[in-house]
Amino acid sequence: MSIVRAESAVEKLLYRIAGEENRDFLTLCIHWKKVVGDLIAERSFVDRFENGTLHIGVENSVWMQELVLDRKRLLANLNAQTDVKVEELVFFIRSRKRIHG
Fold first, then answer.
1. Which of 25, 44, 39, 38 is nearest to 82 (CA)?
2. Can you spell out the DSSP letters for 21-46?
3. Which helix (H) or strand (E) covers residue 49, if one does?
4. pLDDT digits (tens, 9 = 90+) for 60-90
5. Which of 20, 80, 81, 90 has a 20 to 30 A CA-CA distance from 71?
6. Dihedral sign from CA coordinates of 48, 49, 51, 53
7. CB burial readout 19-58, b (16+ within 10 A) else e
8. 3-state secondary structure (DSSP) of residue 47
């Protein structure tokens, strides 16, 4: 019996549920926190990926400016850490929708 990391098993399940048409988007969502770090990941989120452009929602203009200034490094890291070709980053101000239960 082989031991499988829970994180790996969850990722495989997510990819299966999302389907091939959402594979690149899911990959970028999974790697966003690894690329930007915990602090910025708490204040931003991957919104959509279309035609090589990754759209990122940001909590406010201060954090958006931080990301804009770091755009080249973010693009390089996303492309290095994933097999998805991201050509452009677009930032916009929007808070995450929260589900209260």
1. 25
2. GGHHHHHHHHHHHHHH-HHHHTTEEE
3. strand 44-50
4. 999 999 999 999 999 999 999 999 999 999 9
5. 20
6. positive
7. eeeeebbbbbbbbbeebbeeebeebbbbbebeeeebbbbb
8. strand
